[in-house]
Design brief:
By secondary structure, the protein is of the alpha+beta class. Helix content is 41%, strand content 16%. It has 24 helices and 16 strands. A six-stranded antiparallel sheet has the order 2-3-1-8-7-9, covered by helices on one side. A hairpin with a 2-residue loop joins strand 10 and strand 11. Helix 6 (208-225) crosses helix 20 (451-457), helix 11 packs antiparallel against helix 12 (348-358) and helix 21 packs across helix 24 (539-549). The longest helix is centred in the middle third of the chain and has 18 residues, at 208-225. It is globular. The model has no long low-confidence stretch (mean pLDDT 90).
């Protein structure tokens, strides 16, 4: 079960299903859903998909807790009668999930999310009520007559591609942060963190045993997520992250079907093909005309449909293994020596400036509304720095921690927001919290440039290292030489823009309330005319419009 929504009030709601009914009906129609109602009492009603992965009369969970000592985790949550016991269960979890639990005798609702906040759960408090949903679109519909935007969140979305901490583009709608609960009841509301990594101490002298432990924790992360008895489905790129997962699945005797997407023969798809051939995988490569900001889950779903793909008949749904999180969490791709030196000097502003420069992060000040221009000039950077403040006993982890709690937490937002369409449920061993705990114990200098990754990679089955793989610029290189000169993902290539498609994106976005509130229509119109006639390129604006409109 992936989607749920509900409302809880401290006061009696006259026919709560009627109050929510119109919103849910619109939500169902827009999303192509059939959420069904559960009335608890006159104060609480929620809606879930049917058949649900898990829901009961007083709780629901999207994803899996993956408790270390129980195969019946959903019943455990259902039977709880104290919030402290729920906190204990969550603290012992290692999966990706979001959910809620209602304690009827105390008239208290708890919303919760996993330790890295991977599965989104949004909420909005309106006087004595709290609305919640796994999908942000629910709140766009709930507030459709009076949309109030959060300027800082919008600036973060424009610059970084995601909002920080618990912010969303709607000022009154929040997203649960990592390992966080919202407790809402007669005594008021509060957010509570049931767990954190800040007390994990760094390894002083890294040796072979630490890499062995890291490998063991990853193999456990894979094994505990295996629900298939015969066949597994995985996304397979030409890099390392999906490769280590697939090699482990083959080691566990599963028949793997792998999917890859590209626009031409490149290192990414050719190295994936060679590896798939080496391991005798069922390989489904797809060459597309364009691959700009793809929804990978939708591509996999569409390809499965086209190929009349059949899953292992012992499982429900469409689970797909994915290497998301590997390059940032284990490979530290957004960090470098300069950033880490600035962190060590306790100069986080310098570290942020280097990060912005390396990632080409800019705010298009002149195209913003006057309100956003003022905020961008006066407080944007300060607010970002507050999220970068050291929330870890080891200052070594400041920037690394910032990326995990923000960039990675939001990395799969598009996947979960469109899950109603593609129905792909990702298996994400890199976000296993036990594995992440092991990673956090390594000093960041060990992670830089995939140095730790390559030492760790030596522990995997030999077949994983027998064919070439794609590497990041400036990172540890693949030792296997390749005869053919395949194109490289990070080569400097100036692609000709698809002007008609760009203008369609602009035309769609300019109709939105967000555009009218946050941008200068006249200045943007001039820029788009120049772009349309290819006098000057404004592709970065098109990319921003696409991101914001999604």
């Amino acid at each position: 079960m992936n989607i749920f929504a509900g409302v809880f009030s401290l006061k009696k709601i006259n026919n709560p299903s009627e109050k929510m009914g119109a919103i849910i009906s619109l939500f169902n129609s827009k999303m192509g859903l059939k959420l069904t109602k559960t009335n608890i009492n006159d104060n609480f009603v929620f809606y879930t998909e049917q058949p649900p992965h898990y829901s009961s009369s007083n709780s629901a969970i999207s994803g899996q807790l993956l408790l270390s000592n129980s195969e019946n985790e959903y019943n455990l949550v259902d039977e709880l009668d104290e919030k402290e016991r729920l906190f204990e269960l969550l603290a012992n979890s290692s999966g990706d999930f979001s959910g809620f639990k209602y304690f009827g005798d105390k008239q208290q609702l708890l919303l919760f999310t996993d330790k890295s906040g991977i599965r989104p759960l949004f909420y909005q408090k309106i006087k004595d009520r709290v609305f919640f949903s796994t999908n942000f679109q629910f709140f766009m519909l709930l507030n459709r007559r009076s949309l109030e935007f959060d300027p800082q969140a919008i600036l973060e979305q424009i610059a970084l591609g995601y909002s920080l901490s618990n912010r969303t583009v709607l000022s009154d709608v929040k997203r649960l942060d990592s390992a966080q609960c919202l407790i809402f009841g007669p005594s008021g509301s509060e957010t509570f963190n049931y767990w954190n990594r800040k007390n994990i101490r760094l390894i002083k002298d890294v040796d072979k045993s630490h890499f062995d432990d890291l490998y063991d924790s990853f193999t456990r992360a894979v094994k505990k997520r295996i629900t298939e008895t015969n066949k597994a489905v995985a996304f397979l790129s030409g890099g390392l992250d999906s490769r280590v997962i697939v090699s482990q699945l083959v080691y566990e005797k599963l028949e793997v079907s792998a999917f890859n997407f590209g626009t031409k023969k490149s290192q990414d798809n050719e190295f994936a093909r060679i590896f798939a051939s080496k391991l005798n995988l069922n390989y489904f490569p797809t060459l597309l005309k364009e691959l700009n900001f793809p929804n990978w889950s939708q591509l996999i779903s569409d390809t499965m449909k086209e190929n009349e793909f059949e899953y292992d008949d012992t499982i429900n749904g469409k689970p797909v293994w994915s290497g998301d999180g590997g390059s940032v969490c284990a490979g530290a791709v957004y960090l470098n020596t300069e950033i880490q030196n600035a962190v060590q000097e306790n100069n986080l502003e310098k570290a942020l400036d280097i990060f912005f420069e390396n990632q080409k992060i800019i705010l298009p000040i002149k195209f913003l509304s006057s309100e956003l221009r003022q905020i961008a000039n006066s407080q944007f950077k300060k607010q970002v720095l507050e999220n970068l403040s050291i929330d870890h006993n080891e200052k070594d982890k400041a920037f690394y921690d910032f990326l995990i709690k923000n960039d990675q937490k939001r990395h799969l937002d598009r996947h979960f927001e469109t899950i109603h369409s593609h129905r792909i449920d990702l298996k994400l061993p890199f976000f296993d919290s036990d594995f992440m705990d092991n990673l956090y114990a390594f000093p960041v200098k060990e992670l830089l440039f995939h140095k730790l990754y390559m030492k760790w990679f030596q522990r995997f089955p030999t077949a994983a290292r027998s064919t070439p793989w794609q590497t990041y610029p400036g990172h540890e290189k693949c030792p296997i030489k390749v005869a053919k000169d395949y194109s490289y993902q990070w080569d400097n290539q100036h692609k000709s823009p698809n002007i008609q498609k760009d203008m369609d994106i602009y035309d769609n976005f300019k109709k939105t309330a967000l555009f009218k509130k946050c941008f200068s229509p006249f200045r943007v119109r001039i820029a788009m005319l120049l772009h349309k006639h290819q006098i000057k390129k404004f592709g970065y604006l098109i990319n921003m419009f696409r991101s914001l409109n999604e």
